[in-house]
Amino acid sequence: MTAIARRATAADAGRACPFCRFALKAGAQAAQCPACSAVHHAECWADNGGCAIMGCTAAPGQRAAAPAPPPLPPPPRVAPAPTAGAGVAPPPPTRSGSPGGRGLLVAVIVATLVVAGSAVALVLSRSRGSHAVANVVTTVITATAAAAPPVTGTTTVATPPRPADAGADETKSETEQTAIERVLTAYYQHVVASDFDAAWALLSPTYTTWKAGNGGHAKWLEQERVNRDRLDPSGLHVEVDRIDGDVATISVTGMHFRSPTSSRCAYEGVTWARRDGSRWRYDQGYLQNATRAARWRPRRTETLGYTCESSGY
To answer: What is the dihedral of CA 100, 105, 106, 112, to 10 degrees?
Structure first.
């Protein structure tokens, strides 16, 4: 069942997507279930293959099976050949290598493959939908073509190889950006909910190790308590500027902060994420290694939260 594609509204903002459980953001691409009206992230609807609400008729396991294909027509009736001795000479024997022998063999192979393919297609159509039928029919046709010997006087044209997916790198980049944005969104949601242990668990090991010698967990906690009381992360958005090895330099926009001089300061700027095994973690701050500090200390006004008179990371 096809979802209703739209933008998330202000009324949708803050509600949890039924699939990933992360909050929806106003203006983001969304998919509304046509059966139960549940609103998902558009990519979550696509990943799940339908509605994530258990029991919904638009959920992947609840979709109706495609109708079975019509039965094959019966084979044509062949009249019996006249017997020898009734004034008709028996047909000459057909050699196994003759065109007649090959034609009979091809006919038997084709008929067997078509019948078998139809039976498999019927089973798959009941369990997986119309797409499975198309795949099975394609397989049968391909196998039939492979089994049939070439006919004299014809030319077989090979199917050209499929070109490489030109969008592979772009898809990978989009996947990494989504993963990084989810980590930062979850981090600041934990902070404003006072779930500081969950937020700390999303930080990179390099950051927590460095922090142990620079005020430790207590100093980090003092800063995040300020953010809990003054930060509004509901509009957070992440753009990946570059990825160098396991480190991503990212730009954060959409958050706001109540500073001593502004009731709604734009809490924006550059920060970092680091790949830890198979997942990304928040790698805040520019002071944790000498190379990053040398590059970004002169540009610290561009880093996340600096212009809001927050003490930073």
So the answer is: 150
